[in-house]
């Protein structure tokens, strides 16, 4: 849509039985900016896919003025209302004048993009990160064991940050745990390749998980100053 920053999303199933990742982007008529959400279902079953889709949609539809923490709590409420035991990790980015406010649980990530290099904005909620921060030994398997999730998190466990200016990249661990930062930089140097090339490269290099990316190019206007007359929900997910 004219006036909005250009953004791209892509996802691939990889060698899993199903794709349990989901992306949602939503702008409320008369409200500023677009909210972005990327969720990664916990596990490889239909419940994980439904959880990711439900969480991403509920988070993206949260009013910007409520903030990204409220978006994750709305996602939690939606999951609990859905029933079952399906769960997901989630990262949400909401625009404010000059940048984005970000909240996350689990190991989906957000990066800033300055046109040359990415800069990691989030810290994974994993057992490996927990022990690494305390200078304790950990096993490679702990990199994939999350300590928070949409269904289980408490409000004070939701991590937040913000970024001013530039572009934005959201990824599931099937991308960022396969591609080193230098490779991501090289791919994003050509914005037209963007999310699709990140996902394709992650799978080609041997990724064993679903791989999903949402890339927001550097805006030409203030992302929070735009007011839309009509912008329907743009959501993507693949659930077997």
TrEMBL record:
Top-level taxonomic group: Bacteria
PPM-type phosphatase domain boundaries: 6-218
PROSITE patterns according to UniProt: PPM_2 (PS51746)
SUPFAM superfamilies hit by this protein: PP2C-like (SSF81606)
Protein name: Serine/threonine protein phosphatase
InterPro entries attached to this UniProt entry: PPM-type-like_dom_sf, PPM-type_phosphatase-like_dom
Coiled coil feature spans: none
